Amino acid sequence: MAVAALERLAALLPPERLLRRPVELAAYESDGLTAFRTRPLAVAIPDTVDEVIALVRLCHALKLPFVARGSGTSLSGGSLPIKGGIVIALNRLNRILKLNPEGRIAVVQPGVINAQVSLAAAPYGLHYAPDPSSQSICTLGGNVAFNSGGAHCLKYGMTSNHVLGIKAVLASGEVVEWGGASRERNGPDWCGLFTGNEGLFGIALEITLQLLPKAECFHTVLAGYQTLEQAGDAVSSVIACGLLPGAIEIMDALALEAAKAAVHAEYPPGCAAVLIVELEGPREIVALERERLDGILAASQPIEMRPARDADERFAIWKGRKSAFSAVGRLSPDFIVQDGVVPRRKLGEALRRIAEMSRETGLRVANVFHAGDGNLHPLILFDGREHGALERAESLAGRILTMCIEMGGSITGEHGIGVEKRDFLACMFTADEIDCMQRLRAAFDPLGIANPGKMFPGKEAPALQHQGLHPLERAGVISRE
C-alpha cells in the first residue's frame, strides 16, 4: 500500500515537492504541541489549488489519510501527522488574490500569513481584526481550521466572524464554494460551519475575509497587582460597568519574568500579575471611556498604573504580551499550553485554584490569557528529560480543564481539541451530541481520511457512503423532503 501510494503521489508532484526521506520528514513530525510526534509516510508540497484538489482526490481513491498543514503552530496537536498518511503542506499557496478597499474584503489562499493581510490593507486604512499571538507566522488556513481568536477577540470576535466566503475541497474530493463578498445571503451559514472544523472536513483553498477600518485612537493601560485574583476581579469590574475594550489581557509573574528575559519588556516591579486594557475607536469616544476606565482601575487598588504615552510605548506593551508563549521557553525546556474557558465572574477563583494546583503538584504554571472572555492559557512548565514529568504535566492540565467544565466553561477557547483534549470531549457533551458531531464529520468525509484521530475520543465514527446527497443530508442533519 505504501509503495503504491508513493508511486501515485510521485505522478502528481515533482521529486523536490514530495518529501520522503527521514531527514526531510523530521520537521513535520510535530506541531506546536511538541510532546507528540508521528512520522508521516510523505509530505506533499503543492504549488497550486489544482494540485491540492488532485492530492485530496487521490487520497480519497486510495483511502489514504491526510493532514493539511500551514506553519504548524497548532497548540493542540491539530496538525500532528497520521502514521501511514501524508501531510499536505500549504505554505506555497501564499497569495493575496484580491484586495478590495471599497468593498473592504480580501481574498486569500490558505498559506497567507495572518499579519500580511493587515500589512497589505494598511495603506487603505483597513486591517484584519483576528490577531493570534502567532500572527506573524500562523497561516489563514490554520486560523480557519481552528477558528482562531487573539487578544482583540473580546470586541471583534473570532475568525468565524470575519470569514465571508470559502472555496474548499472536501475530503470526498468534492469542490464547494460558499458565501461571497457580502454578508447578505440566504440559507445555512456553511462558512460558519466549516470554520473551526479542525481539518476534519477538508481543505480551504480560497478564503474571503472581511476587513475593518483601523481605529482612529487607542488608549492602552498597564496595571500591576499584588495578586492574580485582584487582576481577575478588575476584569469583572471593567466589563460590569458596560465598557467594551478592544482587548483585556493578564500575565502573571512567571510570564512577566519570561517576557522580560526574551524581549526586555518593562513591567512594574514586584507584581504578581499585570492587566493590559486597551480602548480603541473614534477619538471623542475613547476620551470619554478613558475617564471611566482609569477610575475603575484606580479603584481596583493596583500597585501601579502605566498608560502608554505614545505608539512606541503601546507597541512595547503588546510586544511583551505577544512574545509570552515563546518566551516561556527561556524558563523551562518543555511546557504545555492549556486553553480552557471560565465565566468572567469566576476568573479570580479560577486563578486561585490553578495556583493551588501548581503548589500541590510542584509544577510551575505561567498564566497568560484573554481575560475579557475568560479564555485561560496556563503554561505548565516541566522537563521532559525527567521520568514521568510529561505525565505529571498532562495530569495537571487535565485537572485545569476539569475545573473549567465544573465552573460552567469550556475545554477550549481557540486552540481546538486536536489530540490533546479528545478524552475531555465526553465531559462537556452527551453521547448523543458527540454522535451528531461524528455523523456531521462523516458527511463531509465519508472515509474518515481527513485528519483522523483528532477531536473525538475512542474510535472514529462509522463511515457513511456517498450517495450523491448534500453532506448534511448524508449526515441526517437536514432533509429535502
Task: Give a verbal description of the structure.
This protein is an alpha+beta fold. It folds into five domains: 2-89, Uridine Diphospho-n-acetylenolpyruvylglucosamine Reductase, domain 2, CATH 3.30.43.10; 96-213, 2-Layer Sandwich (Uridine Diphospho-n-acetylenolpyruvylglucosamine Reductase, domain 3), CATH 3.30.465; 215-331, Alpha-Beta Plaits (2-Layer Sandwich); 333-417, Alpha-Beta Plaits, CATH 3.30.70.2740; 429-474, no CATH class. 34% of the residues lie in helices and 19% in strands. It is built from 17 helices and 18 strands. A seven-stranded antiparallel β-sheet has the order 15-12-14-13-17-18-16, with helices on both faces. A hairpin with a 4-residue loop joins strand 8 and strand 9. Helix 8 (228-240) packs antiparallel against helix 13 (347-361) and helix 13 packs antiparallel against helix 14. The protein is globular. The relative contact order is 0.11.
